[in-house]
User: Which sequence fits this backbone?
């Protein structure tokens, strides 16, 4: 419960941060809110040589509007997300999911970018980012690149972030008129990670479903889309029957794990039930 | 709240009694803000810090152990292994040999040649800082030759099972039997079953639990010449002192033990810990003060666990529901060693299985079984929750078998109020109560009829969310304990308690209690008692405890004993103070002592208005000692030791209404109502607090908590991510109430409330869950009622099965494999 010794840098700009990472030696870790990293260090499952603390990099924190998109700084805390006016208007799916993250104390420190970079399959925000087809802006020694969510999450706790790279911001489409959203989370106690969760954003047009985006939390080593359900929903009348039928396909292509909270078959069952509930709520049934 | 005086009444009228007032706890401000001495706050000049290297294997021989590199690490002072203490460490004590034949394999504080559970101490670094000690652990080189791991009790007792201790002949430590026929307290159990019209048999599993107290364990030892002072986050400084002296050979009078403020225990700190002994041995060897404070991970992994029984219960009855016999066979997991009262916990439960029912025949048998897990020992309720669960669950099963209402079956068999005192088939004499009244009141609190109607509606409409109602009409024995009874059970100590009262010159009062609190609120309750007994203001009373140099005799806090036994000692001491003061007051008032009345803190002469002297004035007079009667000592201080003649028997009716989402298996308590009879209530706020906390832990056993070991004997629930302790947000509002039938074995009439909620609630919750889904074919669900288990029980039958034991995937923890389920399912 005491971390191994490490060097510490606290840059104030992205430039400085990249430099600190480059100078930090063999094993450098970026520290955001520390809510995932510090426990792992205290258990000595990680023992980085250098920590580069991003909490003073002001340019990484906050939410802005760019045309049809919202741009969320990686260091925007969960608590910021819950009080941001732009997200309140256009980012309800993110807000709903963030409300379910841990407790007040953790939300004060934990960050949107940190939760995505950590890529815990039981974390709530990766599936939301995937459902929204978010774009991840990464900065490295060679400049910036943009990666779609579908490519950002590579494996269990693994993203496409290269050594020396930083997640800078995340771009998500504004969901306005016609969209309904719901984050349906299933866990045993209020402050725990998801056993399974479903992020649904559905657009209605003339009593029919025009577009459906469904992300699944903890149904495999990375967040997944319930593609078969999405396809089955497009063009159907809004009714419990159509939603139920489509949700029955939610577990297709998933490979959830077995652990203390649930075994795989039960997770697949939950995915169907929760998808039905999430979509039904999103379309106002 | 303070005592309210009626402004219109004469000044001389006594203030309202303190006992019964819902006083806020006077100790809470410092406890909650941490502005006090917790053991880990202690800083002594030259203090060294210990870190413990712990075994990662559950069973193995240490084939290689090299600490030389660790000794070279910065700021390391010494590194010790078991070999260094093999000669002097002795064995940790087990104070409860429940049978003469019980096998105790001995329990070294640090492993010498062999490790028997994950987390056992293997080496210790002593360094100038805690971090230096922790860092140096990584430099210790150790190899183990693995031995076969024994985890499953039902396998461990089979012939041919590998042994936990190869110098024993079986994994069974003892076989304890209580047979009411043999004891003369009941009929022939076998005959009762042979003649029965109906029998019901069940196997229940009491999962392993972790006490999970808030303050981690911490020990500081300061040597001074040939004396030692130990501070420890313990429930039992007095017992610890005797035991540590016996283990280490340090003479008892050269060892002072202090439990400063202690942050919870729940039985988990009713222990003589390996680290307490090791701190003493190391402080003795180095002549320097040392400190050890555990991490949360160490705490969950190595502090003793609780429960862990497989229970085989049979009940015999007539068709009309009259119970005829009860048979209990237990396998109780001891873990790898016998700690302080490990073997006694299930044996204590033996007397409670009959519950509140008039069984004419009863037989109890228990095997204590060794496994390669951390030892079990006391955990809130210690034996009684296990018994209450079994009887309250089997009563429901019997009701189902008979097609009877579960409450009607209980009514038919419980002891009626006019039958008290009632000697049960287990030989206990229940003191008082009214099960009918408590039940009626609880039904009302719950809104029973309405919920039953809703349950019916949900059934009929096939609602995905089903509703169930579960009962637990429980009693327990508390106020441990009559010393002679403990002697007859081979317990290694008595059950008395001591108190003394010191009257200071300014009239302030110091109360010294041998019952050491660790969060219960003794300081407040004792002050209320003394304020009434001596007629002094509540604020004038200070309660001292937890230091063997201040409170020289005591048996500490467990078994809901503090108020019942320790509080009574306070009353007795106060009575002596009054009697001593009376003689001096008579002298001062120039009256005959027999003519004095004592009310509201004042001695007055009967029939002589106006003449009087307050007890606080007497205190000053006797301090000056200028003028007091011949032939008496100039002191009104007094002490008393109280040894109860019987236990006290709180009881109550707990009713849980449970919603089950049949689609997901998620169980949610809709409403929880309970009416407890804990005798006289000294402080309603403390009573309600104890009930709430107890309910949280009892509900947690039913729904959340479970210590799980994987197939290699690793604790998979080694952090609070995986060992789920519910928070306030996970628990319902509690509707609580009381009836009052005073205990007859102590002058306060109090029955003890520390464990009631925990003992009563678990079966009510499980009965409620089953009531919600029985119509779907479910007959049992194993605790805790995880959503997955409930779902599997509904959709696949059985009791929901084992949980995959390969860890959680949150926190970047262990990943899971297919083998995880297969191993767990074996
Ligand atoms: C008690 C508790 C309960 C929790 N419950 C939940 C829950 O219910 N749902 C949930 O989703 N989460 C939960 N969390 C996790 C929480 O959301 C964390 O905040 C989040 O996972 C990590 O964010 P962080 O800012 O703390 O990142 P950190 O812990 O600082 O970092 C996490 C990882 O991401 C890397 N990283 C961080 N920022 C960047 C960046 N800008 N660029 C590159 N790499 C970066 C770090 O190097 C590290 O490897 C819980 C945490 C705790 C302690």
Assistant:
């Amino acid at each position: 419960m005491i971390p191994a010794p490490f060097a510490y840098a606290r840059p104030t700009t992205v430039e400085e941060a990249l430099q600190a990472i480059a100078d930090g030696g063999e094993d450098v870790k970026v520290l955001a809110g520390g809510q995932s990293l510090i426990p792992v260090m205290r258990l000595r499952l990680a023992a980085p040589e250098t920590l580069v603390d991003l909490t003073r990099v002001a340019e990484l924190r906050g939410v802005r509007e760019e045309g049809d998109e919202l741009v969320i700084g990686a260091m925007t805390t969960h608590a910021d997300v819950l009080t941001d006016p732009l997200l309140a208007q256009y980012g309800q799916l993110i807000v709903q999911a963030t409300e379910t993250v841990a407790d007040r104390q953790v939300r004060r420190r934990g960050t949107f970018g940190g939760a995505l970079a950590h890529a815990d399959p039981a974390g709530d925000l990766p599936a939301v980012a995937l459902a929204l087809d978010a774009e991840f802006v990464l900065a490295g020694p060679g400049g910036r690149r943009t990666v779609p969510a579908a490519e950002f999450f590579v494996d269990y706790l693994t993203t496409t972030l290269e050594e020396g790279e930083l997640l800078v911001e995340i771009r998500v489409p504004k969901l306005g008129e016609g969209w309904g959203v719901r984050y349906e989370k299933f866990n045993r106690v209020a402050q725990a990670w998801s056993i399974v969760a479903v992020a649904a954003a559905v657009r209605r047009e003339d009593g029919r479903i025009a577009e459906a985006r469904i992300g699944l939390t903890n149904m495999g080593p990375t967040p997944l889309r319930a593609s078969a359900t999405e396809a089955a929903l497009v063009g159907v009348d809004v009714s419990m029957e159509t939603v139920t039928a489509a949700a029955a396909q939610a577990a297709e292509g998933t490979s959830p794990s077995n652990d203390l909270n649930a075994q795989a078959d039960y997770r697949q069952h939950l995915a169907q039930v929760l998808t039905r509930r999430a979509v039904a709520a999103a379309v106002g049934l | 709240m303070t005592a309210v005086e009626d402004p219109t009444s004469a000044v001389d009228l006594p203030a309202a009694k303190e006992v019964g007032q819902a006083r806020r706890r006077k100790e809470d401000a410092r406890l909650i803000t941490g502005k006090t001495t917790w053991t880990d706050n202690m800083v002594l000049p030259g203090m060294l810090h210990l870190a413990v290297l712990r075994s990662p294997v559950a069973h193995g021989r240490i084939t290689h152990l090299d600490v030389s590199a660790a000794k070279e690490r910065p700021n390391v002072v010494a590194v010790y292994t078991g070999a260094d203490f093999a000669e002097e460490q002795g064995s940790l004590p087990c104070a409860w040999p429940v049978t003469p034949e019980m096998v105790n394999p001995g329990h070294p504080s640090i492993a010498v040649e062999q490790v028997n559970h994950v987390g056992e101490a293997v080496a210790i670094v002593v360094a100038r800082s805690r971090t230096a000690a922790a860092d140096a652990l990584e430099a210790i080189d150790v190899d183990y030759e693995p031995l076969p791991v024994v985890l499953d009790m039902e396998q461990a007792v089979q012939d041919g099972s590998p042994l936990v201790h190869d110098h024993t002949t079986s994994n069974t430590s003892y076989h304890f039997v209580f047979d009411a026929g043999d004891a003369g307290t009941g009929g022939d159990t076998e005959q009762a079953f042979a003649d029965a019209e109906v029998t019901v048999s069940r196997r229940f599993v009491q999962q392993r639990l972790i006490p999970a107290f808030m303050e981690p364990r911490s020990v500081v030892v300061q040597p001074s010449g040939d004396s030692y002072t130990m501070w420890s986050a313990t429930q039992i400084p007095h017992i610890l002192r005797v035991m540590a002296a016996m283990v280490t050979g340090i003479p008892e009078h050269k060892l002072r033990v202090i439990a400063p403020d202690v942050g919870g225990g729940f039985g988990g700190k009713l222990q003589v810990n390996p680290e307490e002994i090791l701190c003493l041995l190391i402080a003795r060897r180095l002549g320097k003060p040392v400190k050890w404070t555990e991490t949360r991970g160490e705490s969950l992994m190595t502090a003793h666990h609780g429960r862990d029984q497989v229970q085989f219960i049979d009940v015999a009855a007539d068709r009309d529901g009259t119970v005829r016999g009860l048979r209990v066979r237990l396998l109780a997991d001891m873990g790898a060693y016998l700690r302080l009262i490990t073997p006694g916990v299930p044996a204590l439960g033996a007397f409670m299985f009959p519950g509140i029912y008039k069984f004419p025949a009863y037989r109890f048998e228990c095997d204590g079984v060794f496994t390669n897990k951390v030892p079990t020992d006391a955990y809130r309720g210690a034996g009684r929750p296990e018994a209450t669960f079994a009887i309250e669950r089997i009563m429901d099963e019997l009701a189902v078998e008979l097609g009877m209402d579960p409450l009607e079956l209980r009514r038919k068999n419980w002891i009626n109020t006019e039958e008290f005192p009632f000697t049960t088939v287990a030989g206990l004499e229940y003191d008082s109560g009214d099960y009918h009244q408590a039940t009626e009141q609880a039904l009302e609190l719950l809104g029973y009829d309405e919920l039953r109607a809703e349950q019916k509606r949900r059934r009929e409409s096939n609602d995905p969310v089903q509703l169930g109602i579960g009962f637990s009409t429980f009693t327990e024995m508390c106020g441990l304990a009559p010393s002679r009874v403990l002697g007859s059970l081979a317990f290694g100590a008595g059950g008395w308690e001591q108190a003394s009262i010191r009257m200071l010159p300014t009239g302030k009062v110091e109360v010294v209690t041998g019952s050491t609190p660790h969060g219960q609120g003794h300081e407040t309750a004792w002050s209320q008692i003394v304020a009434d007994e001596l007629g002094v203001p509540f604020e004038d009373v200070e309660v001292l405890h937890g230091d063997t140099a201040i409170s020289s005799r005591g048996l500490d806090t467990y078994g809901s004993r503090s108020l019942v036994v320790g509080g009574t000692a306070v009353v007795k001491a106060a009575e002596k103070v009054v009697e001593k003061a009376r003689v001096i007051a008579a002298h001062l008032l120039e009256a005959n002592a027999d003519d004095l009345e004592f009310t509201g803190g004042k001695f007055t002469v009967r029939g002589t208005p106006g003449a009087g002297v307050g007890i606080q004035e007497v205190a000053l007079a006797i301090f000056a000692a200028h003028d007091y009667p011949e032939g008496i000592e100039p002191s009104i201080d007094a002490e008393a030791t109280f040894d109860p003649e019987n236990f006290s028997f709180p009881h109550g009716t707990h009713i849980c209404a449970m919603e089950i989402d049949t689609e997901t298996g998620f169980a949610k308590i809709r409403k929880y109502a309970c009416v407890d009879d804990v005798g006289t209530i000294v402080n309603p706020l403390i009573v309600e607090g104890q009930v709430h906390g107890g309910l949280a832990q009892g509900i947690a056993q039913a729904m959340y908590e479970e210590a799980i070991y994987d197939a290699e004997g690793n604790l998979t629930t080694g952090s609070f991510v995986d060992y789920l302790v519910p928070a306030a947000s996970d628990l319902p509002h509690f509707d609580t109430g009381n009836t009052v039938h005073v205990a007859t074995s102590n002058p306060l009439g109090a029955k003890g409330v520390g464990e009631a909620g925990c003992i009563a609630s678990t079966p009510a919750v499980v009965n409620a869950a089953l009531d919600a889904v029985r119509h779907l074919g479910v007959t049992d669900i194993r605790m805790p009622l995880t959503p997955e288990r409930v779902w599997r029980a509904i959709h696949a039958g059985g009791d929901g099965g084992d949980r995959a034991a390969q860890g959680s995937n949150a926190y970047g923890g262990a990943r899971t494999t297919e083998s995880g389920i297969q191993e767990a399912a074996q």
In short: The pocket of flavin-adenine dinucleotide is lined by residues A 29-37, 54, 74, 101-102, 106, 110-111, 113-115, 117-118, 120, 123-125, 161, 166-167, 191-193 (CB under 6 Å).
